[in-house]
Write a structure and sequence with these properties.
With 349 residues, the protein is of the alpha/beta class. The protein is 45% helix and 14% strand. The model has no long low-confidence stretch (mean pLDDT 93). This is S-adenosyl-L-methionine-dependent methyltransferase.
Length: 349
């Protein structure tokens, strides 16, 4: 922990260098360097830059940022060999969290002084990169949710004929479900037109064009359509907190209204797998609240980011459980996601 570094100058330097390294992690993943070092165990940086048309001096400094933080190591000698550092494996697990923060949400966090002033908090007062957010969430699902999602899926006592994914992003979860259920079809609903168009393009190229469709829509305000009648399973990951809209004095009331609309829009759905990250900071009343040394990666960025955007309130585990009965859903099971931060998959009916 930073407070345990005795020299204040060293402690502040550590904070500053960690901020640079956070950006370097997201960038090195997007550029393919992290995955290549992990898989090959040694990468010639000059050859890597030549092959990927990258500026060598910039990449050398990017690697320096990762070397200072024990993620990568440069071997001494004539060759520009880069090998895994002590923290590479853990960084690979959390790389998309850094990407979500430093690339997908850069337009938000770089403008905190502007965003936090009440005079500016109207209309479009921040920007984020929806494609980068979608790609980060895809990897977050793979690294943190996927194992527990399939455990929940394997316990379902129903046939999956048609599945809808709310906040579908890249569409990867729908593809995986359809691969395991060859007779099933799927519908992806996302509020970002860019994400919908990208998902349509990518999944069609993978041969799912006839079985998958994507719709631009607000899952917080669902309405019945004829094609929804066949939906037997609803899934949603990293989206549920958006139901707790702060456009009124009562986010809980908004969440209940949205959950009821989801129930009405998909009247034949037998199960709803709702996975999300819950609030753990500044909530001493919660069983899962954390402070000080116990704060893991992601909650600070996730909770601060959403408070800055002002669109929703991140609920605690207890607040989630409390809304389901009033919204017309019964909680069958709570699947805790054993990750570096607290997440959960609620199995509803």
């Amino acid at each position: 922990m930073i407070s345990e570094i005795a020299d204040p100058r060293e402690a502040v330097a550590t904070i500053f260098n960690a901020a640079v390294a956070a950006s370097a992690i997201g960038s090195a993943w997007e550029l393919g360097l992290l995955d290549e070092v992990q898989s090959k165990k040694e990468v010639d940086l000059e050859e890597f830059c030549l092959r990927n048309d990258l500026d060598l001096p910039s990449m050398q400094m990017l690697v320096t940022a990762l070397e200072i933080t024990d993620i990568l190591v440069r071997e001494s000698g004539e060759r520009s060999a880069v090998i895994p550092g002590r923290l590479l494996e853990e960084t690979i697990i959390t790389k998309s969290l850094f990407h979500w923060l430093m690339i997908g949400s850069a337009g938000l966090f770089s403008r905190i002084p502007h965003v936090i002033r009440n005079a500016n908090r109207a209309g479009t007062f921040f920007t984020r990169d929806p494609i980068a957010i979608s790609e980060a969430c895809k990897d977050i699902n793979e690294q943190h949710f996927e194992k527990f999602f399939w455990q929940a899926m394997s316990g379902l006592d129903q046939q999956v004929s048609c599945v809808v994914d709310l906040g579908s992003g890249s569409g990867e979860r729908l593809v995986q479900i359809l691969e395991k259920h060859p007779a099933a079809t799927g519908i992806g609903i996302d509020i970002s037109l860019e994400a919908v168009q990208q998902a349509e393009f990518d999944t069609s190229n993978r041969g799912f064009g006839e079985r998958l469709s994507f719709v631009e829509g607000d899952a917080r305000d669902m309405h019945y359509q004829d094609e929804f009648a066949s939906v037997s399973l609803i899934t949603s990951f990293m989206f549920g907190h958006d139901l707790w809209r702060r456009d009124s004095s009562d986010p809980r009331k908004n969440c209940i209204a949205s959950l009821r609309k989801i129930r009405e829009a998909f009247p034949n759905a037998q199960r709803f797998l709702l996975g999300d990250t819950t609030r753990v900071l500044n909530c001493p009343e919660s069983e899962f609240g954390v402070t000080g040394k116990s704060v893991p990666a992601f909650p600070l960025a996730f909770e601060l980011g959403h408070d800055l955007m002002g669109e929703c309130r991140i609920p605690t585990m207890e607040e989630w459980i409390d809304v389901f009965p009033d919204a017309g859903w019964r909680l069958r099971k709570r699947h805790l996601v054993q990750s570096s931060y607290l997440s959960v998959i609620f199995e509803l009916e």
